[in-house]
């Protein structure tokens, strides 16, 4: 008896049927049933379907965590579109609704934590500032300066470094 079909298996099988005219993705131990000739445009179409399904799935899951932000401090300022940040990191958590209105807390590889947040530049702070969805300048916080480069790399050109905090060297 075979293993139960997962949601992922069902999705892949549906895409294979619709885009590639392949009846099933189960191994049937027959060359004529297990090997298929497909056009590159059909393959591209199928791959795009899988890609879009993955993107949609990623948007419904939060990519940030609420724990571990304690002790982070300002590392840099970036320019980024609010909607791009939402697309990449999901909906932000609320700040204090005064100095900070939107905040993402992101767990990076090797247990590093970074924050992206606005600071005193939205309508919550003063009426002359824009609504949070129109803010373009964001701060990055972290436990070390290396989180800035990691975040910028993950944002694939959708953010521009405006300013990097200088760290004073401490001599004992």
Question: What's the tally of helices?
Answer: 5
Number of separate strands: 6
The helical percent reads: 25-40%
Overall, the morphology is elongated
Evaluate the radius of gyration: 23 Å
Low-confidence segments, given as residue ranges, are 168-172
Structural class: alpha+beta
Number of domains: 2
- How far apart lie the N and C ends? 68 Å
Mean pLDDT figure: 84
The order of strands across the largest sheet is: 2-3-4-5-1-6
Overview of this structure, please?
The chain is α+β, with helices and mostly antiparallel strands. It has two domains: 7-60; 73-164. It is built from five helices and six strands. It has helices spanning 7-20, 31-34, 40-60, 82-89, 146-154; strands spanning 73-80, 93-94, 102-107, 113-117, 137-142, 159-164. The protein has a six-stranded antiparallel beta sheet. The longest helix is centred in the first third of the chain and has 21 residues, at 40-60. The radius of gyration is 23 Å and the shape is elongated. It starts with 6 loop residues before the first helix and ends in an 8-residue tail after the last strand. Residues 168-172 have low confidence and may be disordered.
């Amino acid at each position: 008896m075979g293993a139960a079909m997962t949601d992922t298996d069902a999705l892949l099988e549906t895409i294979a049927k619709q885009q590639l005219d392949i009846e099933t993705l189960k191994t049937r131990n027959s060359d004529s049933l297990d090997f298929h000739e497909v056009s590159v445009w059909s393959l591209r179409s199928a791959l795009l379907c899988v890609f879009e399904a993955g993107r949609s799935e990623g948007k419904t899951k939060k990519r940030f965590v609420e724990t571990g932000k304690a002790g982070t401090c300002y590392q840099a300022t970036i320019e980024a579109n609010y909607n791009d940040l939402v697309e990449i990191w999901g909906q932000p958590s609320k700040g204090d609704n005064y100095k900070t209105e939107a905040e993402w807390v992101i767990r990076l590889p090797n247990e590093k934590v970074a924050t992206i947040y606005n600071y005193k530049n939205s309508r919550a702070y003063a009426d002359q500032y824009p609504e949070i969805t129109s803010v373009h300048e964001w701060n990055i916080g972290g436990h070390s300066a290396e989180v800035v480069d990691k975040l910028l790399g993950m944002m694939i050109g959708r953010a521009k470094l405006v300013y990097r905090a200088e760290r004073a060297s401490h001599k004992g």
